[in-house]
Amino acid sequence: MTSTTPSSIQWPPLGTPSTPGTQIVLPPAQNSPLDVPQGQALPPLHQKPAVPSKIVTQYQPPNHQCLPTSAPQFTPPSQAEVEKKPWKYLGYPGFAVWSASSKDALVLRRFNGAHARVLYYMQDQIVRREEELARIDQHCVARQDNIDNGTFRYDQETRRSEILDDLRVRLKEYNEFILTHRKLRSDPRASDHEVKNVKNWFFNNNYPIHPDEGRFINTDDDLVALVPKIRTPLRRFLDMFDCFRLLSLFRIRPRQWHHYPAWYESRSTKYHSDSRTDSVVTFLIMSVGLGMLIGPLWLLRHFVDECTRLQIISSCLVIFSGLLSIVTVARPFETLAATAAYAAVLMVFMQLTPGVKGA
Predict the structure, then answer these.
(1) What are the residues facing 29 on neighbouring strands?
(2) Are 98 and 216 in contact (CB under 8 A)?
(3) Mean pLDDT for each consecutive 10-residue tract of the chain (359 residues)?
(4) Which of 20, 74, 90, 167 can pair with 208 through a Cys bridge, CB separation 3.0 to 4.6 Å?
(5) In sequence order, what are the beta bridge partners of 224?
C-alpha cells in the first residue's frame, strides 16, 4: 500500500479567503468509494461533492473455526442408554428442565452459616474504619493549633473524607446484605415433600448429578424453596399421602417442553394441580364450618337442662378451636378471638331458645 505525502497537495495559503472559483487538485485516492479520476478537479468548496447513491458492502462473517458449519448427525438415545449414562444424557440440563417444570421442584441452599460469616467480616471492616475515624477525631482535638472540626469542605485532615467515602460504600453494601439475608431467613424452609421430590428424581434417574454436587439436598435445615408456599397443617398432613395427591381428580398433564430433547421428560414424575387440591380442601373446611354452626343450634334446641346445654357449648368451643388451628394459619390470639365470637353466637341462641321440654 503506497502513501501520499502532504507535500503533493496544493492547499491555498493560510488566511486566503476561499472563493467559488478556487479549486484544489488532489492525487487519486486508493480503493476509495469516492474515487476521482486522475487530473480531474474537485467541485468548488461551496458545493458538496457528489456521493454515490448506494454503497454495497458484502458482509464477511467471522471465521469461527471452533463451530461446525452444519449440525452433526445425532441419533436420540434409547431409554436403556439414558439409564446407563444419565450423567451424559441428563446431567444438569435435564435436572434444570425438571426443576423448572413445577414450583415444588426447585430447592436451593440459603447458606445460613456462610451468610453469617460474611456479615461478621463486613461488620469488622466497618468497625476498623470507624475506630480509625475516632482516632483521627481525637488527634485533631488534641492538636495545639485551632483546627476546625466543624467543616467538611475545609477539613485539613483529608483522611477523614477518604474514610467517610469508604464507609458510605461499605455501609450501603452491608445494609443491603442484611436486608436480603433477613428476607431469605424469614422464608420457611423447604418442606419435606419438596425435598423428597428432588431426592426421588435423583434416585429414579440413577443420580445424573455428580455426588459432590448433589449432596446439597441432604442439608434439610438449610434448604429453601424458590417459591415458598404457606400450607396449613391440614394441607401438610394430606400431602404426606401420595394416594391423595395422585388421585385422578388432581392429576394434570406436564407442560410440554418442545425445545428440549424428549428424554428429558421424567417418566417417574407425576404432576398434580395445587388449585384443585386447594379447592377440595376449602370445600371440606366450609362443610365442617357450617356443621359447627348449624349442628350445635339443633342440639341446643332439643335440650332444656342448662347444665347439658353448657356442656354442648363447651364441647363445640373446644372442637372449633382445634379445627381453626388445623385448617388455618391463624395466630393464637386470632384463633382465640374467633372462638370467642363463636361462643357468643351459641350463648345468644341459648338465651333465645329455652329448648323443648321432654326432649
Answers:
(1) none
(2) no
(3) 43 47 45 49 51 48 54 74 88 88 87 95 96 92 84 88 95 96 90 88 91 92 84 77 75 65 72 79 86 85 82 88 83 85 84 59
(4) 90
(5) 108, 189
Measured over all CA atoms, what is the biggest interatomic distance in the chain, rounded to whole angstroms? 132
Distance of CA 64 to the CA centre of its chain: 35
**DSSP codes joined into one string, 159-176:** HHHHHHHHHHHHHHHHHH
Q: How far apart are CA 88 and CA 81, in angstroms?
A: 10
Element (H, E) at 14: none
Q: What angle do CA 217, 221, 227 make, to 5 degrees?
A: 75
List, in sequence order, the alpha helices (H) in the chain. 79-84, 86-89, 91-99, 112-142, 158-186, 192-204, 211-214, 233-239, 242-245, 274-301, 306-327, 332-352
41-49, Cβ contacts within 8 angstroms, sequence gap of 24 or more: 44/20, 45/18, 45/20, 46/18, 46/20
pTM of the model: 0.60
> What local confidence, expressed as pLDDT, does residue 108 receive?
93
**Residue 49 burial (CB count, 10 A):** 8
Q: Helices 274-301 and 332-352 meet at what angle, rounded to 10?
A: 30
Report which of 289, 281, 276 is spatially closest to residue 236, judged by C-alpha positions: 281
Cα–Cα distance, 89 to 76 (Å, whole number): 10
pLDDT for 67: 52
> Whose CA is closest to 319, among 353, 359, 291?
291
Calculated CA dihedral for residues 67, 68, 73, 75, nearest 10 degrees: 0
Q: How far apart (Å, rounded) are the C-alpha atoms in residues 330 and 321?
A: 11
Q: Cell for 197?
A: 421430590
The whole-number pLDDT of residue 14 equals: 46
Q: How far is CA 297 from CA 293, 300, 303, 335, 353, in A?
A: 7, 5, 10, 21, 9
* Residue 80: burial class (beta carbons within 10 Å; 0-12, 13-18, 19+): exposed
